[in-house]
């Protein structure tokens, strides 16, 4: 592998998924004089929505909030399939003149900050060669999970199974499941999407079982929201999108707050909605009664109740039990039941991987992100001129990302006006901290010892409220009142604000 020298850019964005493309818009809009590029390690844009190929892949949030504030979601489908999201992202790239800004097959390996030069040096793998690129700022729009590995527990007897075992993250596009018995292990968004999808279309399994150790809360939602579509017809897409977005923001927050304040009542409401869509006499409390309270983990949305329709048809079933072993023909459960299978799908979750696996260092010293504290949800303490996008766990993930990018671009513009070129968050070493993501989902719990921290004070707390963040991030940037952010010039004329 050779090493060549590349160009210097004002800003490098890592990742051409929904976050990275959004960053491109805000840089273009807020900092038009800045040079920038979006580096994408894969051969195309789209991130999650291009990587995953399993049947029925769709959003688990409405696109009016999962999409961008600046670009209306015009489809009648509020819950959207992946191909529609890809089309939306393609339009965003074209409308913002980002086509030539995206560098495909550019995988960032490492990034080292030089305090003396006030710039990052990135080692980038490009078509078999290693290129060094420099930038004044780095934006991480690379998501939060490992694209190269999914999470699969160790299953006793796995090697004895005569059929195929597949993780949804690596779904073979040519997989033929027609007429076959499929067991989907898992109870999250991927599992509840797969079960009905495997029973529709030209390919159709003979029977699908969702095998779960622990149930999840599952709520039916309309794939097409009548009021939203009325807004769009009556007021046009721009105003309709704004009204729909505000409505869904309030609705999401209202559901979350209600569930947290009145968990027993929320549980009863969800159970009632489930029961009326399931066959009479169905054991709802066995298969749809989680041991935790609503919104301690994400609720799974099923558009038009498609999972319940599949169960009611008799072509799908749910089994709630522990796995004893795989065998040649399927899975043996602790309760004695045997699930026959031709194909087993391990929809058992993701592996967290912040920064896309990029190795960070500051002045040659490796950064231990577990010792860093997140400032305003956007920057890590001790890591200058770098911003990351971590969204909401209790609402649309990307709802927060636009605010974060706008905050950072405003910060950069203000620094330029003052002749400053370095911004670094400085945390009080005595400040009490906890993991950045305070969430009970399995993929978060498995990675707690790898995550940055958050503090208790407002500027150091990872807010999960859009309204709080809108006040904190969208208000006019007043550096005189900023807490914990140190701005300097490369001449080291320090200004603490």
From TrEMBL:
Keywords of the record: FAD, Flavoprotein, Monooxygenase, NADP, Oxidoreductase
Protein name from the UniProt record: FAD-containing monooxygenase EthA
Names of the cofactor(s): FAD
Pfam families associated with the record: FMO-like, NAD_binding_8
Taxonomic path: Bacteria, Bacillati, Actinomycetota, Actinomycetes, Mycobacteriales
Domain of life, source organism: Bacteria
Source organism of this protein record: Tsukamurella pseudospumae
GO molecular function: flavin adenine dinucleotide binding; N,N-dimethylaniline monooxygenase activity; NADP binding
Alphabetized InterPro entries for the sequence: FAD-binding_MO, FAD/NAD-bd_sf, Flavin_mOase-like
Family, similarity comment: Belongs to the FAD-binding monooxygenase family.
């Amino acid at each position: 592998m050779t090493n060549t020298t590349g160009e210097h850019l004002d800003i490098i964005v890592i990742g051409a998924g929904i976050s990275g493309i959004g960053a491109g818009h805000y840089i273009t809009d807020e900092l038009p004089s800045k040079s920038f590029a979006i580096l994408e390690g894969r051969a195309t844009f789209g991130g999650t929505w291009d990587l995953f190929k399993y049947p029925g892949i769709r959003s688990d949030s409405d696109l009016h909030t999962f999409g961008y504030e600046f670009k209306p979601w015009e489809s009648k489908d509020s819950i959207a399939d992946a191909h529609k999201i890809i089309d939306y992202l393609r339009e965003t790239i074209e409308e913002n003149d980002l086509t030539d800004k995206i560098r495909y097959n550019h995988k960032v390996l490492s990034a080292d900050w030089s305090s003396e030069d006030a710039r990052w040096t990135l080692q980038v793998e490009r078509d078999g060669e290693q290129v060094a690129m420099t930038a004044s700022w780095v934006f991480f729009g690379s998501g939060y999970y490992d694209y190269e590995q999914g999470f699969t527990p160790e299953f006793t007897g796995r090697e004895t199974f005569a059929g195929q075992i597949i993780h949804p993250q690596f779904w073979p596009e040519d997989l033929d499941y027609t007429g076959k018995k499929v067991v989907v292990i898992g109870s999250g968004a991927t599992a509840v999407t797969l079960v009905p999808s495997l029973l529709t279309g030209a390919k159709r399994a003979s029977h699908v079982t969702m095998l779960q150790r622990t149930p999840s809360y599952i709520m039916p939602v309309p794939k097409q929201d009548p009021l939203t579509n009325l807004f769009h017809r009556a007021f046009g897409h721009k105003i309709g999108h704004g009204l729909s977005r505000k409505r869904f923001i309030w609705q999401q927050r209202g559901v979350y707050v209600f569930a947290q304040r009145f968990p027993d009542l929320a549980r009863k409401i969800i159970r009632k909605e489930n029961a009326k869509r399931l066959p009479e006499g169905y054991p709802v409390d066995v298969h749809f009664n989680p041991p935790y309270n609503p919104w301690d983990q994400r609720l799974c949305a099923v558009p038009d109740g498609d999972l319940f329709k599949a169960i009611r048809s008799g072509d799908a079933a749910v089994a709630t039990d522990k796995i004893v072993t795989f065998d040649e023909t399927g899975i043996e459960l602790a309760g004695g039941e045997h699930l026959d299978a031709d194909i087993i799908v391990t929809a058992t979750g993701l592996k967290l991987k912040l920064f896309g696996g990029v190795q960070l260092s500051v002045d040659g010293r490796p950064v231990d992100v577990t010792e860093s504290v997140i400032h305003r949800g956007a920057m890590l303490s001790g890591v200058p001129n770098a911003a990351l996008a971590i969204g909401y766990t209790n609402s649309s993930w990307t709802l927060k990302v636009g605010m974060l990018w706008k905050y950072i671009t405003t910060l950069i513009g203000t620094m330029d006006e003052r002749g400053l070129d370095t911004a670094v968050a400085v945390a009080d070493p005595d400040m009490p901290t906890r993991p950045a993501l305070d969430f009970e989902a399995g993929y978060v719990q498995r990675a707690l010892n790898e995550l940055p921290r958050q503090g208790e004070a407002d500027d150091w707390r990872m807010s999960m409220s859009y309204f709080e963040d809108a006040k904190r991030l969208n208000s006019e940037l007043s550096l005189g009142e900023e807490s914990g952010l140190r701005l300097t010039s490369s001449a080291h004329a320090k200004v603490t604000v």
